[in-house]
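User: structure tokens for this one?
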Amino acid sequence: MQEDFHYYATYSAAILAGFSHEESLDIGYSAQMVDWCTRTFLSKIKGPQSAATTQLQLELVEARTDAVGIQDITRIWSSFHFLPYDLYADVKGSRSYRNKYRLICDTNGDLLIDTVNLAKDKSLQAIGLAMHVLADTWAHRYFAGTPSVVINNTNHHFYEIIRDGDSFSERPLSFMHSLGKGDDPEKGMYTATIFQFDENSIMSLGHGRAGHLPDYSYMRYRYLPAWGDFAEIIKDNPSDYYHAFTQMIYAMKYLRGIYPSFEKETYDTDAVAAYKEEIMEIFEKRQTDSCEDWKAFGEKLTGKQIEPFDMWKYQDEYTEAGEDEKDDTFLGRFFIAALSQKSMVTNKIYKSGNKLAGYSVDFDKKGFKGIKDYKKLVDIKKKR
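Assistant:
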């Protein structure tokens, strides 16, 4: 998903969940910030490097792909963009294959429950971050947040399914490998990463081999994923995005205290009943950027202006704060939420017997042994 959904649509979902305009702006901002909080950004503002929630293309090109490098990449992408569905999935193959297969993202997994619960009684930044992770389980399902040819590769078999009134037609899709060219929906031409034989090539991270098809709400397509022995999968983005939107509303109502618990496969369709046709028109519209449509929808809900996303908006507040005050700034609260989410997911993966995301130590039992950035979480827990 992109800014149109993570910022503007998340704002709208927060409004429908009962948050105020100002609260919804903070939630939407935090959801979108997940796609911008790189180590390059953190270096500029002298933030905790371990709070990185994504990686720039240049960072990935320069990333190590040995065991330690893969663990670093996996911690980021599995924690925030490709939340694993079943860490104990029963699948045949070598241990290496099983570990990678168990990182495949899908909706309504146990880790989604953990992610939403982690944001309970926390900051608005934590709620926004959790909504990004939730939304991406719908957009990025069937791909894994670790470099892997045997899991994330696809082949030339891509067919777009196009709505034509009450029926559908199909056409083959083509992929380019030039970063300088944008996607062309009218011609069915999209950019994607180049195939590499190296199992751990970053070209096979997430949905790189499928380009931005998972990020466009209008896309319906069928393709052959490597992990399924190239058995065909049909992806219906308009339906998936609608489920993501209504699940976010339900999740945020839970986080507001409206519901006693967060349950799987539960969606607040009643909250959008009056707007469903309008929302589906946005999802179905053949465009690669729906920001203007979602902005107009959000402003229609409240009658208030939604300011454009600016990743540097809270930079000065953070950099000018004293060391004892940084954690109470907007970005400081976001960083703590990011560290908490990454720590939780890494711990769950490690406890499943899978070391692709690295090692995790239970500090309640063994004391603090780890990266200095995470000391914040220990100190916060001790204060409670």
